[in-house]
Hints:
Four copies of one chain form a homotetramer.
Chain A: E1 9-13, H1 18-31, E2 34-41, H2 49-57, E3 65-69, H3 71-84, H4 101-115, E4 119-121, H5 130-141, E5 146-148, H6 150-153, H7 158-168, E6 184-187, E7 192-195, H8 208-211, E8 229-236, E9 239-243, E10 246-247, H9 250-263, E11 268-274, E12 280-286, H10 288-304, H11 307-325, H12 332-342, E13 350-357, E14 360-367, H13 375-378, H14 389-412
Parallel strand pairs in A: 1-2, 1-4, 2-3, 4-5
Antiparallel strand pairs in A: 6-7, 7-12, 8-9, 8-13, 9-10, 11-12, 13-14
Subunit structure (chains A, B, C, D): Homotetramer.
Catalytic activity (chains A, B, C, D): L-citrulline + L-aspartate + ATP = 2-(N(omega)-L-arginino)succinate + AMP + diphosphate + H(+)
EC number (chains A, B, C, D): 6.3.4.5
Amino acid sequence: MTTPRAVKKVVLAYSGGLDTSIILKWLQETYGCEVVTFTADLGQGEELGPARAKALAAGVKPENIFIDDLRDEFVREYVFPMFRANALYEGVYLLGTSIARPLIAKRQIEIANLVGADAVCHGATGKGNDQVRFEVSYYALKPDVTVIAPWREWSFQGRPDLIAYARKHGIEIATGKEQEAPFSIDANLLHTSSEGLVLEDPNEPVPDLVAKRADRRTITPEEAPDQPTFITVGFERGDAVSIDGQAYGPAALLGELNRIGAANGVGGLDLVENRFVGMKSRGYYETPGGTILWHAHRAIESITLDRGAMHLKDELMPRYAALIYNGMWFTPERKMLQAAIDASQDDVTGEVRLKIYKGGVYVQGRSSPYSLYNKELISFDAAGGYNQKDAEGFIKLNALRLRIAAWRDQRLGKND
Amino acid sequence: MTTPRAVKKVVLAYSGGLDTSIILKWLQETYGCEVVTFTADLGQGEELGPARAKALAAGVKPENIFIDDLRDEFVREYVFPMFRANALYEGVYLLGTSIARPLIAKRQIEIANLVGADAVCHGATGKGNDQVRFEVSYYALKPDVTVIAPWREWSFQGRPDLIAYARKHGIEIATGKEQEAPFSIDANLLHTSSEGLVLEDPNEPVPDLVAKRADRRTITPEEAPDQPTFITVGFERGDAVSIDGQAYGPAALLGELNRIGAANGVGGLDLVENRFVGMKSRGYYETPGGTILWHAHRAIESITLDRGAMHLKDELMPRYAALIYNGMWFTPERKMLQAAIDASQDDVTGEVRLKIYKGGVYVQGRSSPYSLYNKELISFDAAGGYNQKDAEGFIKLNALRLRIAAWRDQRLGKND
Amino acid sequence: MTTPRAVKKVVLAYSGGLDTSIILKWLQETYGCEVVTFTADLGQGEELGPARAKALAAGVKPENIFIDDLRDEFVREYVFPMFRANALYEGVYLLGTSIARPLIAKRQIEIANLVGADAVCHGATGKGNDQVRFEVSYYALKPDVTVIAPWREWSFQGRPDLIAYARKHGIEIATGKEQEAPFSIDANLLHTSSEGLVLEDPNEPVPDLVAKRADRRTITPEEAPDQPTFITVGFERGDAVSIDGQAYGPAALLGELNRIGAANGVGGLDLVENRFVGMKSRGYYETPGGTILWHAHRAIESITLDRGAMHLKDELMPRYAALIYNGMWFTPERKMLQAAIDASQDDVTGEVRLKIYKGGVYVQGRSSPYSLYNKELISFDAAGGYNQKDAEGFIKLNALRLRIAAWRDQRLGKND
Amino acid sequence: MTTPRAVKKVVLAYSGGLDTSIILKWLQETYGCEVVTFTADLGQGEELGPARAKALAAGVKPENIFIDDLRDEFVREYVFPMFRANALYEGVYLLGTSIARPLIAKRQIEIANLVGADAVCHGATGKGNDQVRFEVSYYALKPDVTVIAPWREWSFQGRPDLIAYARKHGIEIATGKEQEAPFSIDANLLHTSSEGLVLEDPNEPVPDLVAKRADRRTITPEEAPDQPTFITVGFERGDAVSIDGQAYGPAALLGELNRIGAANGVGGLDLVENRFVGMKSRGYYETPGGTILWHAHRAIESITLDRGAMHLKDELMPRYAALIYNGMWFTPERKMLQAAIDASQDDVTGEVRLKIYKGGVYVQGRSSPYSLYNKELISFDAAGGYNQKDAEGFIKLNALRLRIAAWRDQRLGKND
């Protein structure tokens, strides 16, 4: 165990659950310091009320308890900017866990500055990406902050030690929490991820224990209704603003897309990903609303975005996604990429009609006052400003460098 | 009309259909030259037999009629290398039409060299990408060849002129071909594309006339069976080699994936894309087997590919896809990217289990003797070579540059 | 010769020299239209006064003569943004000609809109990049404009035809202009380029005829003084603002750097480049001030730019440079890249000390209030916030994926 | 101090100098293990003979002393492949130190496998890049190896402790080595780097103490002769093979270029760079031969490389350079990039003529049997296969997307 550093006041990212309750107590014991709890509503679907009572019961002063509803900020300032980029990590993952971490870290640091805390603490384990995402963000925003990562520091060996510690300190242990959970869950308004134990064999399908658990985010495609659902998503400057003509705020909109997606079996993803810390891990991710949003955004871009802008975005996207995955939200290079992406979204305004059916999202139509789709140019028999003769020159000059090389090869008797 | 250049012998990409039959006659009349017909089986699903009879009837000499089965070469040398890259154009298009063009062009040039022809001719229109793909490939392989593009050259104005010309020259006009087709189709073993007229309003869904036509490639998700189909796809060094343990040659394997995908409503795609010649166009593409293959290849890579290799591939992919879309297969830069991609596939060997259900393809498991997934490292309580303490140093040095900037900003009293 | 289209009024990019004087007359004769002349001072070093007299003599109405000093706009809005990117085309070329074209085109279109002209005309040849740069910019800014490119249109065959035409129309022919020039020159405040004839053998050095001509931009290194010159260049937010502590406006600053560079033999470049139209060409470029500015900007970035920002900039730069080279200044993708680049320059403020000596530019020092260089961290024996122990974890996790692969290879008995 | 791990036999990268002599003794004392010394000649210019005697004197068994001349392998397998990429880190650094590390590490691991050692040890400090480069390579090649990094482990505080330890153990202390060196040096055949103390203020020029030290690699430009030197460098498939028509092996060729460059003041570079571990550092690097080689390779590529290949190379280069800088030579992504780069070099054969003068390298000519430079195409009045009329279509289709956007903006009354 690391020797505890001198800490006066620490801001703990606190859910009120067993693990962070143990951490709270452990901080008080180990560091002998004042603990400030910070509980955020990012749409994870848990009641936040009990967190206050539990913190009070653990001896946290009322003025040291912070409970914030960050749902709109989360979607407006983090989720939407990311979706402008059509970000997918390793071709498939919508970054649902990754994108929540910088906001939590940012608010934690704001609270630390407010209450004069010199340390922050999170409950992420020592093998995952979340520790990196939290801590890199902490350091970027408050470079001298002391970071406490209990899972890397304490001497507990496995679940039984933790439970014993909780018992010893009178921490409430909910039914079923005594055993190691068969899988761990992280959730926010964008998605739910499940990892661990029963999911660790990548050659076994996601068990019903996970895919059909009571609090799942989406149903399986097989359970979805036999009739498709049709919706229209409206966009303004790259962000979704309405469903079926009704305006929604950011969080409400994502919530409604979640409801529609979940009802139709959309957004379950079984994947193996490469962690920043170097190993591969397997997870089951549920992102119903985000999956719909991704397809809708691509579709509205397909008629409003210039080709050069789209191709540049596509080439920048994997790096942008990796930056978010790696916790690099508050870096100059992420901001540079965001500036480029945002500069492309001025005309990404219009409506996309979608069919949602048994896990699938199918584009049925797109329209925009800013559309670059030009029916006159494309119609097989119409003129409309396009002269077919131009194609010859276009082709010949595009091919010129290849002809020059071929002439050379002929001259040299080369065969490729 | 362009003044005809002096041409002695021309190799025509000839399907035997109405359009290329008109072109054949037009070539004979306009250029007064010997015409060599080349008909390729790329798995488009048409009988090739009649092409010979029609060519003979049109006065083509028997030794000038070439009919080749290129299906295995197509899949082995073009489709598979492209799938090693997980290529998607503009995020969604599997490049089914694009990838067939360089092979047709290459074979056409080989025949031209064989028979001593000085010209080649294709039936692509003057507004599309295919003219570019054909002609850039022609020039790259035979830089002095004369390229004849009838649709850019002749003086016919619309369908009635063509039909009149066909009548005048006794060219057989199949029932229903007198009118402008309500949409045009291109097909090969990888996919079928539909474009034009009834598809030209991007705000209208694909009509049943297209989506449910008799010779469609895939059914709609709604029509698919209520029971999922489970398959296992085997890979060796990046290429699919077996289904459910049974080995297949390249074309047979893709054919079998097409059959499975089509039966389950997989692979229909309604999109608006950016053409190389500068306008947007809308199409409906059916790629049942290719869609399955894309997911399977991603899944086997997810356990066998190093993170650095995967991320580099992901960043190179959009450019690689655009090169193929733009007809740049025979360019040095496509070959360079292929060399990089191929260098990553040595260990992409193993099996992927898939559930195919109502248009969706869901990974159920992946296994490989070359797997980099390491259960010991990931298990929450096991040690296995990973020391959680290392994470602290990893994070701190990754954050160091951001801390330095934050210290500077503090010193300067800057707020971002 | 192309059939002349109906044109009412054309804005001609007019230098007053022989070639554009012939074009002026040819426009009047061929198109029978009103000609508006536009003469810009971009620092090419020619007197603009005579242009007015010549235009009047050629029958251009006084209100149709535009003479603009664009030097500050050129440097502020085009040169400086480009230097923020450290742009080099093909590793060596500072894009001196390329960057002037969009400004000329933009102003030409502004004048066309002002005077109600329906056409624009430039004097660039049909083989070069400049025709593309001019015309792509015209079309981007005024999509229905008629573009007249005399060198691609008229029927003159070579120099004698042009001279005869000039004689016939009483156009003044300066001494020495009757013959084909042994090389052609383009100049602006950023650079001078020489191309053609005597430079066409890339295996022969630049002849003195070019390198030592009377109006050259820079001397040769051998001719430069034996004593170095020392200067300090000040930057604010990425742009140079002062020399040796004295503030300069954009054009004046570049002019002063030109003077210093030229006096010390800086900035001569003999290169072979790849044109956008497909062939290679050879040129001799002189960019004395720009060469100094490039080194100075790199140096101030070296202490003020974060690593992630710098590396991203370096990776984006070749594409950004190619866009400018290809005339794509007014494209969405160039603007996106500019947004990214500009977002990195907030703290690129400070001073760079340089030694200029016999063609070389050597950094002697850099300082900035925004410096990220941290002497305490780097000093071999000081602590200063860096814990050497962190390096172990950093290295181990960076190596983890490679170890996993190596363990696998060991297990399989593989040797790479 | 870290608790010593159990080690039986360790291979030490050993120069015979004071620092590695102390390390040798410290290893014997601390780990109580058998020490194997490995001394490599990479062209650093030191005599290797004394290393054997010193190792023997320190108690190393004769069979445990390895002294290898790796100069040709170094240039052939590391330097030349890197120069094929025109690699520059952060726009200026030729990666002279970085590129030597993977070879040393590889040979160290080979020896470890040969002698059955379970550990390796290097003398790099805990703040620099070299520790990363060594250790990442070790782990990639022998994942279970124990890595000993004395500078991160031992408890010596500064120079006096080290000297005292040396005295106590009878280690020879050369004159002037008792004090902290005013700067530290690393050298190999490609370059010499100087860092530390007297170089730590980035606003002060490199002092003569460094730039004019007795064993410097290159002289200053001011000291160089007043007459230029002219040489011709021959290339085959991307690698330099001759100077002035005389064939050289890899190491001999680089040595000769070093001689020529050094005599003319080429290759001194004062820079501030971003270290992988997160801070900026300042150095003075001398790379005379490499600087000449970089210019020569660019020049031969300028006539033999296709545009698409060159631009792709230029875009990949910064990442390739950063991989080498960061010690990632033995990674899949570096090998992928190398495969792409190498695939471009087949025709990079020919000769480049250079003028070397007072620190500058100036291309005077380039020729190649594989040249793609086509004088006929470029000559202003010649036809040669290029039809100027083609440019119109080329431009129009390249501009089409921009016109479509402009038409839309007109329709909407938008101003950008």
